Amino acid sequence: MSKLPLEILDTVYSQLRKKDVFQCALTCKSWKESALPFFYKDLSIKICGASPIKKLLHLDPNERDRYFQHGTSTKKLVVRSDKAEYNCMDIFSSEDTDNEYTKEEWLILLGYLPNIQVLDILDSGNFGKYLQYILDSDDSDNLLPKIMEIIPDDRQPFMGQSTESSKTHFAVCYKFHKTITKLNVEYDMGFINDEIFTLLNNFTSLTHLTFNNSLDTELTTLDIMNVCPHLISLTYHSEYDIPDLSIKDLSAPTIPNHFATYIKDYLVPHVDVLQLDIHDIDIFDWIEKFGLDNAVEFLRSLSKVKTASISWEPYKHYVRETISTESEPTIVYTLFNAMRRNEVYCEAHYDDFRSVYTSISLARDDSLYIGHGLKRSDYYIPTTDSDEEESDETEQSDRIQFVMPNRSISTIGPEVIHNMDVVMADRNPDLPLEFLLYALNNCPHLQQFSYRSMNRPNRSICIGTDPKMVLNDVRERKNLSNSTQENIKVVKLKNMMPSNKLLDLMKMYMPATEAFICSEDEYEHSPNEPFEADLTAFKWLDLVQLSARMLCGKNRQNTTYMEIQFVDKDWEYYCLEIDKTDLTITKTTLEQTKEQTGKENECIRKCVVQCHKHVKFVISFGYIRIIEISNGQINKLDEHLSLSMHNRYIL
User: Fold this and answer.
1) Which partner from 27, 318, 328, 507 sits 20 to 30 angstroms from 75, CA to CA?
2) Origin, by domain of life (predicted)?
3) What is the 8-class DSSP label of residue 609?
């Protein structure tokens, strides 16, 4: 073991947790010498741990040196909570609870750590004081000679007002302006604003900058980039509209033409990641001010960036200014198409609780994601008086009908979507199946669909290619057939009975279904109707998983009878019994089933499933009570297997 090359040991240590590196250091002398630099690479001084260190710092220098001999290996120092968040008086004597470093102690400690690149004292309880010690030090040449980042205090009490600690933080960073690579700047009334850009220009190694502007109404990222030419990451927050020299009458923040040109021509060719967040205006008003043709050209330029995203998310009660003749899907799909790179994997996320937001994201693997808030007008058509007269219902709700894009403007529509995720607060019980029907009718390449209700009852439908509904591998996505009928293998329901409409959709679009799962939340009330499902059309179906609570019904009966009608063998009958936290299933007969579910016992439910003989049934009760029925045999799974199956199949 001691003859392993140092390169191999270094590779092993770099992959281990710190406590495992320490165990390696205890193995032998040669491993100790190679492991300890990795062990001390990240040094964290925790609460109640300063007192022993303080004692060492007061030793004679010759004796003290040997205790800090590995300090040269430390690249990151974290000092946590000098002021106790819990009472450590019962553990340490009073002399051990002096956890605040004096100026002399603090500077001696840093002197033993000459190779620190990152200093994190934010949680020390003495953030400003320790920074001041560094600022007042006269030994600048020997103190923190390789420092690259000092973690800032981003917990500002007021927007537009710097704290003393933020001013001190910048002053300390400027003291090491030749080596600092990451910096946060608060540009406001309390800062040294007249000289800020002169000072920034002196940070010759700066590559990552976060700039918070609450002072200058005319400041753009171009101004910042001019004085920081080596930046590879710039995060710019401004309280003001991004100014445009040619347009002076903007009433809401937007991306003006000259700034869009700057992004297209000068920024896009040089960045790998670009994120644009447009606040206080929705996508329609933005298009009205910017122009649809300009917007398409602008988003097409973003498609050249490896990872790019743009979002519009105004405040919650935003009122649109624009009255457009085009529908939202038309505009959204037009911009979506502008960012597409060839035939790519497309994923759409819809919800109705953030109805004014839109986002489009392009991943490094060319996958394209759209997020869009739905208004009622996007999926409802108001009923007319004649509709109400024809309806036999006492209360008439709007009809569900989805708005489609105008194909004379947008050359693509929902047919490009491979994965659709819908989260709705609307309680309409018809919505889950209507959204599923919309996806199946309009997305011929659909690989996955998910609908979740935010409000009780929390109805859910999920269809996909595997039980976990995960398609992370790009090759896996691209290797799937373009036919929905061949892709969909799993259908999951939660807090819903399998209606005839759903089964008809499955027969038409999902004949290759292999697993059919129906689950129920413990706190939900089961529907009134009994569980009945004709699954004989699905020749490849091999698993049916049902919730015992759902089978027992709304009144929470403890007993239900299940009748499995096989196409190609004798039928089977089972009695399910729930006893507080346990589930029991026993075989029974047709006569006993009829006797128990007759008119005298109308409260006892009956479940009927029709299928082929090779289908395996799994009945679940909670997380760790699962019973399997296969070829007439009843097998109660242990807790480990039950939990594993629950996590794999249940929504």
Assistant:
1) 27
2) Eukaryota
3) E
Number of CB atoms found within 10 A of residue 578's CB: 20
pLDDT mean over 46-64: 81
Instruction: Provide the CA 493 distance to its chain's centre, in angstroms.
Output: 23
Torsion of CA 546, 552, 554, 557, to 10 degrees: -160
Q: Which of 66-80, 107-121, 443-457 has the lowest mean pLDDT?
A: 66-80
Report helix, strand or coil for 299. Answer: helix
Q: Provide the 3-class DSSP secondary structure of residue 46.
A: coil
Provide the 10 A C-beta neighbour count for residue 138. Answer: 7
Picking from 268, 262, 348, the residue whose alpha carbon sits closest to that of residue 302 is: 268
- What residues does 185 pair with on adjacent strands? 211
Q: From 412, 318, 317, 435, select the one nearest 360 (Cα to Cα).
A: 412
Cβ neighbours of residue 71 closer than 8 Å, sequence gap 6 or more: 40, 112, 113, 114
DSSP for 442-474 reads H-TT--EEEEEESSSS--EEEEESSTT-----H
The per-residue pLDDT for 471 is 52
Q: Is the distance from CB of 169 to CB of 190 less than 8 angstroms?
A: no
330 contact partners, CB below 8 Å, separation of at least 6: 405, 406, 409, 410
pTM above 0.85, yes or no: no
C-alpha span between 538 and 513 (Å, rounded): 6
